[in-house]
Design goal:
homodimer; about 220 residues; Arc Repressor Mutant, subunit A; 9 helices; globular; disordered N terminus; DNA-binding
DNA sequence: CTTGAAATAATTTGATCATATTTTGGCAGC
DNA sequence: GCTGCCAAAATATGATCAAATTATTTCAAG
């Protein structure tokens, strides 16, 4: 059961194509709020900023708009969508429909080792909140949910949820920018307890509450 | 002012770019099963078949893979994904989580005029089933659900559902190719009755049943 | 003379293509 | 079965054309 040492010391990490690199970089920047919602971006501006040709940039943007992370503004601009009350409600419904199901499945499959890893992430998350470190809070919070969802072994549902995070991530950053990391309650402890006892229903219940709290934060911050 | 014709007859309000046209054409072909799942497609093959450069084709494919309608096969091929039991289950869960919610909202907003239109679609659907017209059945069935979802006025949820249809559409065609249009039960009549009386709960219940029946058809046909 | 709006020029941006480069799968030869 | 070569496919760049936005000019009215 010990980790096999791979006979591939080849430090050659698969060379990813430029459009993939551009996609990942922009996706992470959007996810963690480095683009202000509504702030326009141009294709040619990105080609200069990233130092690649326009074809990879175009493909990455096409992908991100297909995922709802970016939006064409009719005129000649692309931007992170600005959420209105309707969008927040829809995102909330979708998250409550999908993430508790993933938490349930994760609970069935979680090993003690998995729980330890998630507890560690949650501790770093709490530390970031105490420090008032918004950026780190956003990263660790995402890590917590992404690691949890991965346990569910449900790639299609997980992908759908990832898309939802791309949509509300930028606004979460805006809200934290206004109010700092104070008053950011979550139900991670309940989720972790449910995982530890492999109680799927309790995990799903806790996750409904966590999602509801998180989306309510965004709603109050933006409306 | 010589030869200035400022009167634009608005006959051609928007000229869609090639990448958009390619995307729509491929999306519809996938949705209605014109590509066999697993059958490989190459970029250059499509550029020749469609008579456009490779840039628009690349962008359209990037979009479709981002939506899960196509999939990279590791080797050098792109294809419509082949669904396994796990994928069918996940798609079933996602549909049951989202489409009943859309049906509920549609019921609240449906006018008698809307119901008449949906009844007409459903009649054409039944006629296609009696005739054994698989292609027409697929189109009308999609129309029914798409029109219904549009009534809900929930663009984000609707977009998520559209993606799901792109994933199981090709396999629905395969199943119909095997068994024809016999034994294709649905609960559209129950849905329509609920819409007519603006009963959201009844509409949601009927839609859960409709989705369950539809996905069960696919499961039995493919496994 | 100033101001404001309409028309026009200039710049920027997006879309597409042709072409060069890189990578990969297949296959001949051993 | 393995290795190295070849062809084909994918990736990426820069150029070109078209469209739109911005800046500038012009003209007329107060």
């Amino acid at each position: 059961m010990a980790g096999q040492i791979s006979l591939k010391p080849m430090a050659e990490p698969v060379r990813l194509p430029a459009h993939e690199l551009v996609y990942r970089q922009l996706r992470d920047q959007i996810l963690f709020g480095e683009f202000e919602p509504g702030q326009p971006v141009t294709i040619q501006g990105l080609t200069e900023a990233l130092g690649v040709g326009m074809t990879p940039v175009r493909e990455a943007l096409r992908r991100l708009t297909a995922e709802g992370a970016l939006e064409f503004l009719g005129n000649r601009r692309i931007a992170v969508p600005v959420l209105d009350a309707q969008a927040i409600e829809e995102l909330s419904i979708a998250r409550k429909a999908l993430e508790p199901e993933l938490a349930r499945r994760a609970a069935y499959r979680a090993t003690p080792h998995d729980v330890v890893r998630l507890v560690e992430i949650d501790q770093r998350l709490d530390a970031a909140i105490r420090r008032g470190d918004v950026q780190r809070y956003l990263v660790e919070n995402h890590s917590f949910h992404a690691d949890l969802n991965a346990l569910a072994q449900a790639p299609i549902l997980t992908e759908m949820v990832d898309r939802l995070w791309l949509r509300f991530g930028p606004s979460l950053r805006v809200v934290c920018g206004q109010f700092g990391t104070r008053n950011l309650p979550d139900r991670h402890k309940d989720v972790l307890a449910a995982l530890g006892s492999n109680d799927g229903e309790a995990a799903a219940d806790a996750m409904v509450g966590d999602v509801a709290q998180g989306m309510e934060q965004i709603r109050q911050g933006l409306i």
